[in-house]
């Protein structure tokens, strides 16, 4: 800007003032933490000292700038509230000037995604690791519905399913994702009357030859019951076997 490079920095406390040797405060400590996160050796004392200035000097020099001796100039920094922001638009034209008192922002951004958590999970779901699909890619999801993969947060930030639903100023945004088992399982559709000796979600089916197999109900669809079977599925079953000896507990 005006011939000087500007560096975007994340800090838990906004970098709101110029700093010089001896200055203390939470903003100094936040600057030191960010310099360290970016790979520049700085003290963590909360006091603007030589090591802090030297780290700032090295970072600014990496972007083609020269830091004034012993000082930190806030005008050379763009503070952001998260470690990264995605620029979604620019309201200015090439060659135009932007000042602090402009009513319109020069750039618009999508706020970084802090967390992803699925809600309304099925209560009687089959045990097993699961994944969700975000922007065409699959990511692991915890039993409680939490997605911790940093790449999933990045994928969500650039996914139209999120950006198209997000409203400015809102803290959370609801989106729909595909939720499935990591390893597929075989599920069979049978008539409800084919199940015998039911105990909650467990029961048995009877093959055409009279052999009983344990079955576990995982859902229903269009009047049919969906089950998993213990052992190899028979070629055919009795659709209404009546009573049959089978321990489904």
User: Which structural class is indicated by helix and strand composition?
Assistant: alpha+beta
Give the biggest beta sheet: 5 strands, antiparallel
Q: Which regions have little confidence, pLDDT < 50, spanning 5+ residues? A: none
| Average pLDDT metric | 84
What is the molecular shape?
Answer: elongated
Discrete helix count:
4
Rg estimate, integer Å: 30 Å
* Euclidean distance between termini CA atoms: 73 Å
Strand order of the largest sheet: 12-16-15-14-13
Query: Helices and strands, in N-to-C order?
Result: EEHHEEEEEEEEHHEEEEEE
> Which range does the strand content fall in?
25-35%
Q: State the total count of DSSP E strands.
A: 16
Q: Fraction of residues in helices? A: 10-25%
Task: Summarize this structure briefly.
The chain contains 4 helices and 16 strands.
Structural commentary:
With 249 residues, the chain is of the alpha+beta class. The chain contains four helices and 16 strands. It has a five-stranded antiparallel β-sheet with strand order 12-16-15-14-13, with no helix packed on it. The protein has a three-stranded antiparallel β-sheet with strand order 9-8-11. A two-stranded parallel sheet has the order 1-4. A hairpin with a 2-residue loop joins strand 13 and strand 14 (202-206). Helix 1 crosses helix 2 (50-62). The longest helix is centred in the first third of the chain and has 13 residues, at 50-62. The radius of gyration is 30 Å and the shape is elongated.
Features:
single chain; 249 residues; alpha+beta; five-stranded antiparallel β-sheet; three-stranded antiparallel β-sheet; 4 helices; 27% strand
